[in-house]
Records
---
Amino acid sequence: MALLQISEPGQTAAPHQHKLAAGIDLGTTNSLVATVRSGLAETLPDEHGKHLLPSVVRYRLGLPPVVGEAAKAALTEDPHNTISSVKRFMGRGLADICKGCSCAEYEFAESDSSVPRIRTVAGDISPVEASAEILKALKARAETTLGGELTGVVITVPAYFDDAQRQATKDAAQLAGLNVLRLLNEPTAAAVAYGLDRESEGVHVVYDLGGGTFDISILRLNRGVFEVMSTAGNTALGGDDFDRVIAQWLAEQAGLGEEISVRKMRALRAEACRAKEALSDVESVDVSVAIKDGEVWRGELNREQLNVLIDPLIQKTLSPCRRALRDAGVALEEIEDVVMVGGSTRMPRVRELVGEFFDCEVLTDIDPDKVVAVGAAIQADVLVGNKPDDEMLLLDVIPLSLGIETMGGLVEKVIPRNATIPCAKAQDFTTFKDGQTALAVHVVQGERELVSDCRSLARFELRGIPPMAAGAARIRVTFQVDADGLLSVTAREQASGVESSVQVKPSYGLSDREIEQMLRDSMAHAEEDVAARSLREMQVEAKRAIEAVESALAVDADLLSEEERAQLDAAVVALRAEAEGDDHVKIKQAIEALNAASDDFAARRMDAGIKAAMAGHKLEEFT
Amino acid sequence: MAITLTDAAAARVKAFLENRGSGVGLRLGVKTSGCSGMAYVLEFADQTEAGDQVFEDKGVKIIIDPKSLVYLDGTELDYAKEGLNEGFKFNNPNVKDSCGCGESFTV
């Protein structure tokens, strides 16, 4: 007979109606799947009792791809057809990837789209397809274990993943035949796993140093509600980098030259990784490196030397920590504890330095490799409806402000950074020219005042606006960010109801290093930005004033004497010249001069207009 | 007659209750549904209701409503592993027939 699990009171499912849910930690190095059974969230092992599935896919000619340990074992012998750390490529453009280090290991196929494809014997593979293979393996494991089809899954992503990267992750899940209930930020999942939501109120920090990504999140609990106050991180820093510096050290010690083959580098990294892991438990470890033709270099690596190598990397994690604290407006004393996540936090040195930095308790009870998957499973269990009520309300935040481009290349922010999601905000815009019937909406992401300094997310056009005078149309632009952090933008002309919208699709091309850089720049350039903004605003105003005068001249030039006309033209020319310059005060003065010069003209036009309107009417009609 | 648990089942129930952090015991029951008429209920119990029968076996409180007891009397609750899957099993002497998958039954 079927095997049963204990349900929450009143939640027993009807026969054949079990709602099976799983949480998936789709990691750079390893992936896991977890589920809640009889109220207990656990990661699920494979038939060999292993919980971690190496995130490695090997493609073969004419055979189905291999995922996990078997693929990982082939990394050295078949490097070009074996894809590891594919998460780093998710939602990235080719240009981004090449800036990193791992580019040389794969052959990227030339393709028309900006999505990189890795050339293998089984054809050109996109990162989304490779991720889908990993998800399929986890899905199969969960469904065999639970004896049924999964109703839905929660997949975790680094808090810093941008829209493109989140969309790529969702695409991979769809390709694997999974129903995604929600994408959840990894640090948030970890906090859930520790049951921090069941505790009293307080501020918690989640420090997640995984295989390839680093995330820091500041969470505040308020009457049982989790709010992610701020997030920061670096998607290109993790255990892989630790391995690389150790591998480099090994190569130097062993006297290997600059030219190291892909195969040898992989072997060096494997040895580095082994030494690093061993040093979490012992003070020193023996290392060996094959030099050539059976010749082997042997040496020793101790903790002290390891610390010298890795300290700079650990220090690199602390500056995002500072930024997150500043964004959250939290003082160090308010922090109750730090949740440690990710295999790299097993290293005693990491725990030590992080504990020192935050000066509070470091939580390490739950296996740091499994904690994210466990939290995702708990969340999936709630979302699929196996709990009496929605016991948790998770709020996430937007990492960078979202806005649209306005005249003069300025950014109008619609949703500020760190706003909680899901959320929707609307703002009214108008037309710039008389009779304007279309409006180009350019959606941008970033903190700076000028469009050229922000990231372009999408562009679309609203057409069919009824012709009206400049400034008369009311166009409402609505930004909507769903629970997964994906953006849709709608523009609607209020009078006619014409509407146009866009879903932000992967427009690859911004690395998280750049996000970090953008944040830094926005602070460093605050003053310049304000000045640049005033200048652009004044230039736009100048252009508007000139156009207004010119359109008036086109209609009513006969109201002016030649002398007056010459004066007005001179003021226009003067303003046009100033608008080319970069002194916003001078532009302002020239605008004022033009206004003064056109005052009489405007008054006369008004009189003429009234006269024309009154012609043929009796005075009584107007009283 | 009574309701009993195997050692394996008792150990698992205790572990699950401890993990949950609250609850007075385990509620067993039957409800009418499913392809063969009846289905088992297996839930954590936060309280006992008026009329409930309470059995205690191997340190685990089993709570059952009197109507369900008629169908479950003499049942032994077991915890079994089948391949990668694991879970609870009702060894119920009252069952005459069950559906193919065993999730519902008739008496």
Note: The longest strand of chain B covers residues 25-32.
---
Amino acid sequence: MQWNKQDLGQYLTAEEYIDTLLIPLVPISLATGEDMVKGAGQMETTNIFVKEMEKQYKGRIFLLPIYSYLSSPDLEAEAVRLNKWVENACQRPFRHVFFFTFDHQWKKQERLLSGNLLWLPSIKADDIQSKETKAVVNDQVSQLTELIKSYW
Amino acid sequence: MSEKRQQVSRRQFLNYTLTGVGGFMAAGMLAPMVRFAIDPALQASTAGEFKAVEEVDNITEEPTRIDWEIEQVDAWYESTVTKTAWVYKDENGDIVALSPICKHLGCMVTWAGSDEYPDQFYCPCHDGRYYKDGENVPNTPPAEGLDFYEYKIEDGTLLLGPTKPRGEA
């Protein structure tokens, strides 16, 4: 289920079935041009990944909009805020919480998060639409969904 | 026989020429008008578009996943959407093309997706199952069978179009 009116309509009639929350995390920094390009690229690829994952398991995964934050080597404060999000979301019958990110800084803070972190090294693809990239992404997505399935 | 071949008179020549040129101009004016009049009928509807996906000879009795892409236009933007179908030939040799979207909550089902049910479609989200013909297995979450894709066969190639629910099949 995605964060839009149409999906929510369906979600609210069947929320006991959708027990998995997926929160994508994307850092943003406008400090240098390079950072900006990198951040925008991550935003695009993250979107593709999480939407594909949601598409596979639409009836069980609830995808929140991307959580973006100021890029930082110290994400402790963000972890606290994210946990509040999770706390709020878990008033709904969610039993599994997953975070999806390409930002390796989260790997260090993993234990602070009240959920499972899915961290992938970012993909540097000049053309995300190319056939080769798509094959790689599809394979990664199917491995990720297998992983999520193993938690159910 | 020996009569001299009739020459084209000035009058006839002018007649032919004017009729020809006039007819041409009339056609030039009318053609766009006709085109406008029947235009809605010629408009290809994007929703009902058929796309060639596979050679019919390559399709077996085992349901196989086929992916293809369509351009989808909605009010705000145009995007490329990947469509998926499970395609096989039934015992009569007829093509069956099923939508992979689970009728319960919209997950993607897979053929033989569960080791316990190797001859059924399986939805991993809530253990929904469908028989090979797409009918839902009773006492699993889905309340109806998988949608069909409309299909056409042209020159030995399978074309898939929009889906339609079972009730209308």
Note: Chain B touches chain A at residues 80, 102, 104-108, 123-126, 141 (CB under 8 Å).
